[in-house]
């Protein structure tokens, strides 16, 4: 059971396009917050530009306890905590670490070269068995070749694609 003083990661639903401002305001108010950003090339009619965009549109993560809920909700741009059965959903630390690893690998364009012989099928549920995302489960979306997969991991109701070596996953029961 969650203690009033014990801190956990929570997901906040925020105003559209206000993610960076909410992050800044949370940090200014002394809260630990995280906004996963990825750099993408954007094309306008007259130019191209690299732009940092939120990985999850309209979501910011905050490390907080129950006593801090009201001050957090009073930050301009915060709409609500993501809840389940009227309680703020706790985002496990390993999911936050997995998101950070994904963002880091995405920015580096990281490629892996490993192999595993067990058969996998698109749509199958798989478990990550190695590395910082160990223990997370998701659905196999794409088999890029014999060594590279794309697995969708569910985080706060949104699926993020994780490019992962075949050797780091195993099939698991639904």
Query: What count of structural domains?
Result: 2
Number of helices: 3
Report how far apart the termini are: 27 Å
Radius of gyration: 18 Å
Per CATH, the class of the largest domain reads: Alpha Beta
**In the CATH hierarchy, what is the superfamily of the largest domain?**
NusG, N-terminal domain
CATH topology of the largest domain: Alpha-Beta Plaits
Proportion of helical residues: 10-25%
Class from secondary-structure proportions? alpha+beta
Largest sheet: 5 strands, antiparallel
Strand content: 35-45%
Question: What would you call the quaternary organization?
Answer: single chain
Poorly predicted sequence stretches spanning 5 or more consecutive residues = 111-117
H and E string: EHEEEEHEEEEHEEEEE
Can you name the CATH architecture of the largest domain?
2-Layer Sandwich
List how many beta strands DSSP finds.
14
Q: Tell the overall outline.
A: globular
Would you write up a description of this structure?
The protein is of the alpha+beta class. The protein folds into two domains: 84 residues, 2-Layer Sandwich (Alpha-Beta Plaits), CATH 3.30.70; 47 residues, SH3 type barrels (Roll). The protein has three helices and 14 strands. Strands 1, 2, 5, 6 and 9 form a five-stranded antiparallel sheet that branches. A five-stranded antiparallel sheet has the order 13-12-11-10-14, with no helix packed on it. Strands 3-4 form a two-stranded antiparallel sheet. The chain is globular. It starts with 7 loop residues before the first strand and ends with a strand. About 4% of the residues have low confidence.
